[in-house]
Specification:
The complex is a heterodimer of chains A (375) and B (394). By secondary structure, chain A is an alpha+beta fold. Chain A folds into 3 domains: 7-118, Acyl-CoA dehydrogenase/oxidase, N-terminal domain (Butyryl-Coa Dehydrogenase, subunit A, domain 1, Orthogonal Bundle), CATH 1.10.540.10; 121-226, Beta Barrel (Butyryl-CoA Dehydrogenase, subunit A, domain 2), CATH 2.40.110; 230-373, Butyryl-CoA Dehydrogenase, subunit A, domain 3. Chain A contains 11 helices and 10 strands. In chain A, strands 1-4-5-8 form a 4-stranded mixed sheet, with helices on one face. Chain A has a 4-stranded antiparallel sheet with strand order 2-3-7-6, with no helix packed on it. Helices cover 44% and strands 16% of the residues of chain B. Chain B starts with 6 loop residues before the first helix and ends with a helix. In chain B, 43% of the residues are buried. With 394 residues, chain B is an alpha+beta fold. Chain B has helices at 7-23, 39-52, 70-82, 90-103, 106-118, 232-246, 250-266, 278-306, 316-337, 363-369, 380-391; strands spanning 123-126, 142-146, 149-160, 167-173, 184-190, 196-203, 207-221, 225-226, 268-269, 272-273. The chains are: A alpha+beta (375), B alpha+beta (394).
């Protein structure tokens, strides 16, 4: 048994941490999220130069041949600074689908992802589907060499920034059938796509995307037609692992900030950290964080195991993160008092992100159900 | 013990219901579901109630209250919540008003009470300071007597909606040498006095609800002091207890649970309404049961009050449980709206159609914003300290 990181992985972590320490201070981040674009493409190029974007991608296509542990490292560091740039949509999800796509698609897109030249968004959720990945009202019909796509996708994170979309659609079967789901790579500029872009409460950007008779070449199907659900679940579980790592980073930042604040803020003539009731609450925050790290490691190491083992681990982790994220976020605000609610302090922004992570890829209840159903 | 309403009380309920139905402007209905900060919205509803004589249900008749029984006040609250009227802000009606008619002199009563009732004055609360939050008695804003005036210097913070206020009631230190709680006085200060500066504090979502208020050599006439010099803490404590008893928000929480159920009917989990899934049904039931208990805790408190016994420190229970329940409902609502918690509703203009279902609009911001409830009015940790010390004798 070994929970240590390799020398290359430590280097990766250090280079990210160093870059973010120098370039992603809280004030800089505020400017980025308030800018028209809402992200910093210049940084994306630098992430590419640092090798972050290539880290988990296959060597044959410009990647560095790393794996889930490299993603964990990147996302923990990103979480500590609540980085908004679309690493999960592009590298984990876009890269995750494309490395299992046809040789032609791999060759075309993986080097672009590694080089920072393509941004992806995952259009899977729908206005009425909640968290069921197979509940799709978006349909695709085969017509000659193309599929024709019609439907609506909800809350596509990084949608306004993406030039490529990964879209799930129903090609056969009834609502919620496991069979009949197909995954498409769709150019965001395709004729028939209209989008409404907006900011999210956790300072990302998202789109509502409508597809009206959008023609997609059959060659852009990723994985097996009509049998895409297992792949969607696999990549979503990988995205869950990455998002859990982000949450761990964010929790770490909140635990540290809260402990520091409690040592300097004085009431009744003593630092408030001297009050036992707050000490215990901070110990519980710390414990929740440590438990979250543990379960995120567990999931990261099980991503390559059987479908059943991976799914169970992903749901377990998402439950733990959902609960811990809420507790740590709320407690950090409570202990900071009014200050924790202000725009000018970072605490509230971490809290907002952690609150929304629970809703991403299925919340606590959804994953408890999925976990229990797996037996 | 009796739970039924008398025929007179039922008639009163019908009267209130039809008054609200006829007088609540449609655009104000439900505004308080989201975090409302527009001055006009508050003032319009306040004036409608004032005209009817119903804006201050708890005030004695001699000062302009309607002379209602505890039960009538309870019914009135329920009907307002049911109709989703805007709230009547507490700073004038529920806070400084009762202080003035309990401890103020006749001049003060004559000068201030009618304008609180009419809504012509907008009051804000000058209690917290940057260094005095939970430890309120450590406040440092200084008032020095010079002839017929106090000269006030210092800073208040977290002052809710001070940007609209023309009056502020303030705790100030008049004797720096006395024991902390014994050197404090209670002053009413005209916000238009030279030397007062209001600076916004922007909270999550870009909301401007609270402020810092700075005092730089502000001249306040001595006649604006409530009661005796250096006895301000007594009046402040009276007010805090008053604030706590209004803070439970039972009727509003009932309505919020009803809304939550409606959302849960509309949201489908694999085709089943969310409210019918076992986990969610259980969670709604749990919070509803807690609310029922709190409702009866509040009724017991009110019943005592109606027999002339002022609410004691046990009213901290109402603050703790009331705010915990409010926050729990916002958590469940955020869970219920799923992905449509993401859109930042502050980013949409009023005339712009928001994304997602109407019921999801602003729920995430409201969840984040409502974390303030366990902090304001004496944090829930402080409320527990009060019960530990004053009730349990620990």
């Amino acid at each position: 048994m070994d929970f240590s990181f390799t020398e290359e992985q430590e280097l990766l972590r250090n280079s990210i941490a160093k870059f973010l320490a120098g370039n992603y201070g809280f004030e800089t981040r505020r400017k980025i999220v308030k800018s028209d674009l809402g992200w910093q493409p210049e940084y994306w190029k630098q992430f590419a130069e640092l090798g972050l974007l290539a880290a988990p991608l296959p060597e044959a296509h410009g990647g560095l041949g790393g794996g889930p542990v490299d993603v964990l490292i990147v996302m923990e560091e990103f979480g500590k600074k609540i980085v908004v740039e679309p690493f999960v949509p592009t590298v984990v999800i876009g890269g995750g689908f494309l490395k299992r796509a046809s040789a032609a698609l791999q060759q075309q897109w993986l080097p672009k992802i590694a080089g920072g030249e393509a941004i992806f968004a995952f259009a899977y959720a729908e206005p009425n589907g909640r968290y069921n990945l197979a509940e799709l009202a978006t349909v695709a019909k085969k017509q000659g060499p193309n599929y024709v796509l019609n439907g609506r996708k909800a809350v596509v994170l990084a949608g306004p920034w993406a030039d490529q979309l990964i879209v799930t659609a129903r090609t056969a079967g009834g609502p919620r059938n496991e069979k009949g789901v197909t995954v498409f790579l769709v150019d965001r500029k395709s004729k028939g796509i209209s989008a409404r872009d907006y900011p999210t409460v956790d300072e990302l950007r998202a789109s509502e995307i409508a597809f009206e008779n959008v023609e997609v070449p059959a060659a852009n199907v990723i994985g097996e037609p009509d049998n895409g659900l297992p792949l969607v679940e696999q990549v979503t579980d990988e995205a869950i692992a990455a998002t859990c790592a982000e949450a761990c980073g964010a929790m770490k930042a909140l635990v540290d900030a809260t402990v520091d604040y409690s040592k300097t803020r004085k009431q009744f003539g003593v630092p408030i950290g001297k009050f036992q009731v707050l000490q215990h609450r901070m110990v519980d925050m710390f414990t929740a964080y440590e438990q979250s790290v543990s379960i995120t490691y567990m999931l990261t190491l099980k991503l390559g195991e059987s479908d059943a083992a991976r799914k169970k681990a992903a749901s377990a982790a998402k439950v733990q993160i959902g609960k811990a994220g809420r507790f740590v976020g709320q407690s950090a605000v409570q202990i900071h008092g009014g200050m924790g609610m202000t725009e000018e302090l970072s605490v509230g922004h971490y809290f907002a992100r952690l609150s929304m992570i629970d809703a991403q890829f299925g919340n606590v209840d959804h994953h408890l159900r999925r976990y229990a159903a797996l037996g | 013990m009796d739970l039924t309403f008398s025929p007179q009380e039922e008639a009163f309920r019908r009267e209130v219901r039809s008054f609200i139905a006829e007088n609540l402007p449609p655009d104000l209905k439900g505004r308080s579901r989201r975090d409302m900060t527009s001055k006009d919205d508050f003032v319009r509803w306040h004036k409608i109630l004032a005209k009817k004589g119903w804006v201050a249900p708890a005030w004695p008749r001699e000062y302009g209250g309607p002379g209602w029984s505890v039960t009538q006040r309870y019914i009135f609250n329920e009907e307002c919540a049911e109709a989703e009227t805007p709230l009547v802000l507490p700073f004038g009606i529920a806070m400084v008003g009762p202080v003035i008619y309990t401890f103020g002199n006749d001049e003060q009563k004559k000068k201030f009470l009618p304008r609180i009732l009419s809504g012509d004055d907008w009051w804000c609360q000058g209690y917290s300071e940057p260094g005095a939050g939970s430890d309120l008695a450590s406040l440092k804003t200084r008032a020095v007597r010079e002839g017929g005036h106090y000269i006030v210097n210092g800073q208040k913070t977290w002052t809710t909606l001070a940007q609209y206020a023309n009056w502020i009631f303030c705790l100030v230190r008049t004797d720096p040498d006395a024991k902390q709680q014994e050197g404090i006085s209670f002053l009413l200060i005209d916000m238009n006095t030279p030397g007062i500066t209001v600076k916004p504090i922007i909270v999550l979502g870009g909301v401007h609800e609270v402020n810092e208020v700075f005092f730089d050599n502000v001249k306040v006439p001595v006649e604006n002091r409530i009661g005796e010099e250096n006895k301000g803490w007594t009046y402040a404590k009276f007010l805090l207890v008053h604030e706590r008893s209004g803070i439970a928000g039972v009727a509003r929480s009932k309505k919020a649970i009803e809304r939550l159920r409606q959302i849960g009917e509309a949201e489908k989990v694999d085709g089943t309404p969310l409210v019918d899934t076992e986990e969610f049904a259980r969670k709604i039931s749990e919070v509803e049961i807690e609310l029922s208990a709190l409702e009866f805790t509040e009724l017991r408190t009110l019943a005592q009050e109606s027999k002339g016994r002022m609410a004691g420190p046990e009213s901290s229970i109402l603050k703790i449980k009331g705010t915990e329940i409010q926050q729990r409902i916002t958590e469940l609502t955020l869970e219920a709206v799923g992905y449509y918690g993401f859109p930042d509703y502050h980013a949409f203009n009023d005339n712009e159609y928001p994304v997602g279902p109407d019921y999801a609009l602003g729920q995430s911001s409201h969840y984040l914003n409502m974390r303030k409830a366990s902090i304001y009015g004496g944090s829930n940790e402080i409320q527990r300290n009060i019960i530990a010390k004053m009730v349990l004798g620990l």
